[in-house]
Amino acid sequence: MVMIEHIAFVAYPCADVTRTRQWYEETLGLSFAGAYKEDGVEKYNEAHLGDASFALMWAEWLSRAPGSATSVAFEVSDFDDAIARVKKTGTSVFNVQDLPRCRQAHVSDPEGNVVLLHERKT
Fold first, then answer.
1. pLDDT per residue over 65-108, tens digit each?
2. How far, in Å, CA of 71 to CA of 115, rounded?
3. Which candidate, 50, 66, 53, places its Cα nearest to that of 16?
4. Are 70 and 61 contacting, i.e. CB atoms less than 8 angstroms apart?
5. Is the dihedral of CA 93, 94, 98, 99 positive or negative?
6. pLDDT tops 80 at residue 17
7. Are 119 and 28 spatial neighbours (Cβ–Cβ below 8 Å)?
8. pLDDT at position 1, please?
């Protein structure tokens, strides 16, 4: 019997959720659902992607330091275009790989969290 149905969300720790969310919107084109705020400070927000969500969460809630996340891989429809767009923003792209089944590259968000951009080969 399988207890797990799907991934609900992946959360990345942030000291400044607002600034980091803006980077994801402007650099990677994600759309976020709406901020959860406490005392006027954005502490949580999530982008819905298929059945899962990518969340930015105040680091203290996760008990993890900003810049310590490295686990999300975003599938892109056009790898070359995605990399060019990211580079235009001044964000560094590193560890670019052309593998037998995919192409992938790493980028860092403003908090130092690592994001993988991925394109499956057909």
1. 999 988 899 999 999 999 999 999 999 999 999 999 999 999 99
2. 7
3. 66
4. no
5. negative
6. yes
7. no
8. 63
**Domain residues of the chain, as ranges?**
9-120
Q: Which residue has the tokens 């560094």?
A: 92
* Pick among 3.10.180.10, 3.30.1330.30, 3.90.245.10, 3.40.50.2020: CATH of 9-120: 3.10.180.10
Q: Choose among 105, 69, 65: nearest CA to 84.
A: 105
Give the pLDDT of residue 30.
Answer: 96
Nearest C-alpha neighbor of 30 from the set 57, 56, 59: 56
For residues 11, 116, 22 and 32, what is the CA-based torsion angle, rounded to 10 degrees?
-50
3-state secondary structure of 33: coil
Query: What angle is formed at CA 102 by the lines to CA 77 and CA 107, rounded to 5 degrees?
Result: 70
SS3 45: strand
The CA radius of gyration of the chain, in Å to the nearest whole number, is: 15
